[in-house]
Amino acid sequence: MVKKIDSFTPKIDPTDWVVIETFVREAVRDAEPDRYTTAQPWLSAVAQLVQWSIKVECLDLERAVIFHPSNIFDFVGQRDSRSDAAQGTIRSILLRISARLLGEHPGATEDRRSYNSSQGKKPYTASEKVGLRSFVNGQATEHRRKNLEVVVALAAGAGVTAVELLLLTSDHIEVRRNTVLVHIPGKNSRTVPVLAEWEDMVRVVAKAAPKTGPLVLRNYVKYRVGNAVADFLWTCNGEGVKPHCQRLRSTWMVDHLNAATPVDLLLKLAGVTQVSTLQRYLPFVDVREICDHMDALRLGANS
To answer: What are the φ and ψ backbone dihedral angles of 105, each rounded to 5 degrees?
Structure first.
């Protein structure tokens, strides 16, 4: 069984597979397929789920996030070109794996609305942002403090994902007189202006950055996989608000939505193509009344 899991390679983009291979194989191995013949379809299903989760939804490579039933239902739901039978098969496989990895979720076959879990998507409040800075500054070692500065400043200030953080070097941060830009490499390459409230921290990061090598987790040479940042954050403790990559990026997204950043520009900045990706953040956007924006709406209608 283990040999089958370790030898089969799913049909997905090789560049994506390099990032998620370890996570996928370990998940399937720990889920313990029932039969030798189920290992291959399980690997294919998990690989597709994980690839979509990090590329489209920009989620962290954490089992509790990737294999939560709500994410599985979202993944299956967007595969609208498949037959009902195919949809049912992959949903069944993934929910079975989810139950084995995370434990049983009551009502796993019920309406997907049962899984509208928002904790991982919830942005940080203004007071919690202060707590994040306190947590960073309160670390016992310089190593932890510097790595946390990079994660918090770039994820909350520029929407950099956990996987993208591992790709950044000092060359990817451009400090100008009145602006700081992050040039994010990879398949979703883009340039993102840092939000003003996080510029000070990013400037500190840029000033302290080594001239060569990665910005974050330089000592994790053998373990620079997608979940390395999440694993590092899990080991950090201290006073204040403990950061979580997904919530940091959610904070950045909601800050832009509250500032009325044009949707087409926000999608480019976020490195995503589907407008539906923004739907998860709408419950956290400030409530606006039509009557308060009548002039702006009339200008939009007449343009």
So the answer is: -110, 115
pTM over 0.85: no
pLDDT tens figures, 223-270: 555 567 877 887 788 888 999 888 999 999 999 999 999 999 999 999
Domain 121-284 = CATH 1.10.443.10: yes
pLDDT digits (tens, 9 = 90+) for 144-174: 899 999 999 999 999 998 888 988 999 999 9
CATH 1.10.443.10 maps onto the chain at 121-284
